[in-house]
Design goal:
single chain; alpha+beta; FAD/NAD(P)-binding domain; 2 domains; four-stranded antiparallel β-sheet; three-stranded antiparallel β-sheet; 10 strands; binds flavin-adenine dinucleotide
Length: 244
């Protein structure tokens, strides 16, 4: 809400629930049509559409050179949060620094446990029952997806097992919190990670920003809180101004 007030005080207008469906390049800039038929015109377009950023880049006629492969991060929470007073994290695996079940005490006093990461069957696939055949087909058609499957199937099999079996998930938690029982864990809301994957299967782990005429595409934005969102915002603004 504070960010919204600051933006509006500087002259920005924010349209909520306005899905961009068409992007047209013009000599003076970019025209965008939203699902409700509105047309918006701008001298520069900044695409920061998260799970849909590669799709938006292609709508603008640009080849992003990557695809978003969605991974669902599944979580539990502790029924008795007094078992954990701080943060309990494993030593990260350098190949997957963002993975590995860990326990995080939140500012509300609750303890969040996860993520267990599995391929999502849709970009907004927040459960196994959410399947979008076109999106799944596009993921399978990207060579990088097969390269990930080939290189990381063993790791992925463990994640799938923990997704389907609460007992297996509990075993993983017990390595960090030996006292925990299956009955201490309650399902919590999942999240979907917009993993940018290059054609050769490289999992992009840094910011990836590409530019084209009158557009700046933010194609990977990992952990803004772990880095610093203000310098990144400045960098995107600098690049947008350069496009003018
Ligand atoms: C489970 C999970 C846990 C995480 N934990 C942390 C953490 O602890 N710390 C941390 O720093 N980061 C964390 N992250 C990462 C963080 O959430 C992302 O890095 C960040 O949200 C990326 O920001 P973004 O603005 O690029 O994309 P998003 O936040 O995804 O925003 C994209 C926006 O674009 C909109 N959009 C998409 N398509 C269209 C369209 N066609 N038209 C109009 N609008 C559109 C969407 O509605 C959305 O509002 C976590 C991510 C996940 C999945």
């Amino acid at each position: 809400a504070v960010a919204q007030q600051l933006a509006e005080a500087s002259g920005a207008s924010i349209l909520y629930g306005a899905e961009v469906t068409v992007i047209d390049r013009r000599p003076w800039g970019v025209a965008v049509r939203t699902a409700d038929g509105r047309i918006l015109r701008a001298r520069v377009l900044v695409n920061c559409a998260g799970l849909h950023c590669d799709r938006i880049a292609r709508l603008a006629g640009d080849d992003p050179g990557m695809r978003i492969v969605p991974f669902r991060g599944e979580y539990y929470e502790l029924a008795d949060p007094s078992l954990v007073r701080g943060l309990v994290y494993p030593v990260p695996d350098p190949a997957f620094p963002f993975l590995g079940v860990h326990l995080t005490r939140g500012i509300d006093g609750g303890v969040h446990i996860g993520p267990n990461a599995v391929p999502a069957l849709a970009r907004e696939g927040y459960g196994w029952s959410v399947v979008r055949p076109r999106e799944l087909g596009a993921t399978l058609a990207w060579p990088g997806s097969w390269a990930i499957a080939r290189d990381h199937w063993r790791y992925g099999a463990g994640e799938l097992r923990r997704s389907l079996s609460k007992r297996a998930f509990t075993e993983a938690v017990r390595r960090l919190l030996p006292v925990v029982e299956e009955s201490d864990l309650r399902r919590a809301a999942p999240g979907v990670r917009a993993q940018a994957v290059l054609r050769d299967g490289t999992l992009v782990d840094d910011f990836l920003i590409r530019e084209a005429a009158r557009t700046v595409h933010v194609l990977n934005a990992p952990s803004p809180a772990a880095t610093a969102s203000l310098p990144i915002g400045r960098e995107v603004a600098r690049r947008a101004l350069e496009r003018l």
